[in-house]
């Protein structure tokens, strides 16, 4: 996703402490990434990791609502 070489530890923690959803695509040639994911993350964590991204409109609306809520406080 970043377009250049990065360390594995970055990929494992880039999504709020969980791996980036592209980790399998980036690391499959270097390690047995499927086994690593299976051994180190619960099924619930895996469903979060590999959940499809929200569409842009939904993301923007969520950010707007969060900003409104902060402004009211």
Task: List its traits.
single chain; 73 residues; mainly alpha; elongated
Question: Low-confidence stretches at least 5 residues in length (pLDDT < 50)?
Answer: none
Task: Enumerate how many helices there are, as a single number.
Answer: 5
Shape: elongated
User: Roughly how much helix do the residues carry, as a percent range?
Assistant: 55-70%
How far the N terminus sits from the C terminus, by CA atoms, comes to 36 Å
Portion in beta strands: under 5%
Find the count of extended strands (DSSP E, 2+ residues): 0
Radius of gyration: 16 Å
Question: Major beta sheet, specifics?
Answer: none
Which structural class best describes the helix and strand composition?
mainly alpha
Number of domains: 1
Mean residue pLDDT:
89
Helix and strand topology:
Blueprint: H1 8-13, H2 23-27, H3 33-40, H4 43-49, H5 56-72
């Amino acid at each position: 996703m970043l377009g250049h070489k990065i360390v594995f530890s970055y990929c494992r923690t880039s999504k709020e402490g969980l791996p980036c959803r592209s980790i399998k695509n980036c690391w499959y040639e270097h390690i047995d990434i499927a086994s690593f994911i299976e051994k180190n993350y619960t099924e619930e964590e895996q469903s979060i990791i590999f959940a499809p991204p929200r569409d842009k409109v939904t993301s923007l609306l969520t950010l707007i609502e969060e900003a409104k809520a902060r402004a009211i406080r």
